[in-house]
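Crash report, auto-generated. Payload:
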Amino acid sequence: MPPKYHIATSQSPNRFQKITRSGIIAWEEGCLKCARCVKKDCVYQVYEKRNLDNRQMLDSLDSVCMDCFRCVQNCPNRLIHKGLNPSYKVLGDHYWTPEIISNLWFQAESGRIPVSGAGYGGPFSGPGFDAMWTDMSEIVRPTRDGIHGREYISTTVDIGRKVVALELGPDGDITSSAPPLVEIPLPVIFDMLPWSPPGDNIPLSFLYGARALGTFAIVRQSGLNPVIREFLPHAIIYVDGNPDDLGAQLLGSVRIIEIPNGEDAITLQNRFKSINPELIVIIRLRLGSKTPEQALALTAQGAEALHCVADEYGLEEGSDPLFIKERMKEVHLHLVDKGVRDQITLIGGGGVAMAEHMAKLIICGADALTIDIPLLVAMECRVCRRCKEGITCPVELDSVDPLWGSVRITNLMAGWHSQLLEILGAMGIREVRRLRGEMGRAMFFEDLERETFSAMGKRG
Amino acid sequence: MMDHFQFPEIKKAPSRFRNALGKYRVTITRACTNCGLCVELCPYGVYQAGSKRPKASCDHLCIGPSCSKNDFYCVDRCPEKAIHIRSNPTFEVLGDRRWPAELLAGTWHMAETGAIPHQDLNYKTGNSGGGFDKIRFVFPGKNGTGKTGTNDDISTAIELNRSGDSRPRITIPVPLYLGGMSFGSVSIVTMLSRVRAAVALNTFCCTGEGGYPEELMDYDDHIITQVATGLFGVREETIKRVRIVEFKYAQGAKPGLGGHLLGDKVTPRVAQMREAVAGSALFSPFPFHSVYSVEDHKKHVDWIKETNRKALVSVKVSTPTDVDMVVVGSYYAGAHIVQLDGSYGGTGAAPDIAKKNIAMPIEYALPKVHKFLLEEGIRDKITIIASGGIRSAYDMAKIIAMGADGVCLGTADLVALECIRCHHCESGRGCARGIATTDEELTGLMELEWGTQRIINMYSTWRAQLVNILKRLGMGSVTELVGRFDVLAHMDYIKEEEIEGELD
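Recovered output after restart:
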């Protein structure tokens, strides 16, 4: 058994005060600052934590409050009120919701997974990833306990072309050659960002993080500079310029390279591999209605790995775009149907915002996935997209210390890793490779609705 | 059937906090001359007399601006125009999609008064956008052309042992019992309040897996004791005490993950009860490591049956994709009751990823199981209890119409005790409101008599609503409602105008 993969975490405080859902407490005029005021008796010691003077009671509390409402309900003169934090309400957008952003902040700060009581408080279901539930084992199937260390659950995946069966010569010798494979201990690769503040600090944080975790970060060929070149063993170079500019020395030192899909993608792949046969080439293609056929054709031509990319909302290209999980299911099943699925590595990306999305995308057929915006959020990004407009980042991401950033990213990934183990453990699956395409053991909203409710409304 | 059971008396149990939370906020300005007219006028008891001016100390009972059509509307009648009614800004922060502020406040009202809220509060559904919240009853005719006669003619009783074996036939007068919450996850006052309410309603309350505190022993006949994988506090002596023993295989909020009590909540008393070490987190691993087949499961059931020859055996399971097979397995293993715990159920602590994503909501699982058991010809041989996401009397009635015999509740009890669903029950000292805590100081925030009465009041109101639903549907008993999909409509699948009858 390989050594257990463990991600070391350390508490990494925010640089800016975090934005919480509520906790704005307004005192109406007339506060007598009485000695019995419940504000001093707060169970969570909000006053002590904020270093507020409990004799003055002037400041509104906006980040440490735990919403227990005791102060509101016990104030002798009913002068304390709470309200929704307007800054929280405007965080992110319809997809990158305030709940997701604050959830990512928590994990990046602590390295812990979000745990809470009182059951689930969210919507019944929703679009995209929220329209599926994962399975669990009960009574007659063994579960696994990876989270408490009692069993080993592997989250390792391989990137590259796979041999489906060994070929043997007449004398019994193995004649097939094994193509190169790169193993990553977590099925996650850091992608290029759809937008970000300028400078090297952010990509460096990603690279530091990728190195700490044993995975890779994709960097643009056009962004290469001597500082980034130090991280080549953990970088995937995305060819966005002239391939000839890469040079044999660089191609000899990287392990994975990514190229855009195009008519000459396989030719380019073969050219790179002729220079470095151990190199893995990933072909990046924009997810769309043609992807299943493209994937099949590329697999037949000898592609090693495909990176199917949706936009930051998980949507493919086209006028009536499907969500990534739907199209990935189709791509996976098409390759299964043609009997070639096991030959190629499928990587999905775009719209992956939470740990659960990771598990769900793998269930829908991906071997691994890429993430982008969550890594920025780990470094306190508020998904305001001002940087896209060239406006200064409110949390100064361009000046972030890459070492601090990498700790935050590592913490986040530790949280995601633990949550992946929770899902795998509940399903009784011992390794994440087995999770791929396990659609029969997932539950999809549309199917369940049809089975359960479709006949319910009809009358007469 | 328990036709002549005397249901407990409703007694007022107002909020234990100085300021109850309501939808509206009533303020009286300094212009008030303390004439006392508002105190006299308001039929809802919003005002109390004061020395300088009246106090709107019960403004959570105010019906808001809609009162303006009444001749007792205080705002209009106040001679000094000193009264103002506005929406309570704090109300916006309360609750979540499953338990919105109105459902919380509506439930608090029932627990306080034992009556259906008179304010314009939606106490029937949440705002989750699916499942129960999109399902409505279809009542024949406007205002129902249902059953005539008195409410006393309608039975809400259910049988818990339908197997036909030699064990006792236990009937409960309400189709509900209270689910497992262990000592450690909640305070002894919470635990006793729930048990005493169960006694008053002649139903049951489950201990959860945390031992059997001696304070509960006076109520043995109304307790379900739980056997879960950690076997915390489980002894043959405790199994012999009770009339129902429950195996917990999984919990809806964290299916496939087992139980977890954080170290902070493991006080010396909790540790003693669980035969563990104070301050150390306790895991109840998943699953039973001695059960890998239905045969193993049967051995478990046989063990309980042998230990206590009069007990019924209940099995609590979660809702995986093959939940129907799990239930059939339990039936053949000899269980009398299967409790299906849906994925949106309550918990003292669970990873958010599990609460949201693992296993299916009860609204899908129950119909699937009911249908499968019917096809197998064994539906009438086993009692199916639904739990995990049942928040109101309407949810209870809907899931019975979808195939359950009855329901098991937990979160609703805590809401009756003024839980605010801040979702911090896993943390530090536990619950700041003294419900889900083992901290001595916080435990002291709640009185036993008050807690007991709040739960009695709430479930009495639920029963009254259920009787009303049955009556409007023209049914004489709750057992007639089981599996009656035809009385339900899902608002995504039918237009309101296509329905003959009243939707509610």
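Post-recovery validation: The two ends of chain A are 62 Å apart (CA to CA).
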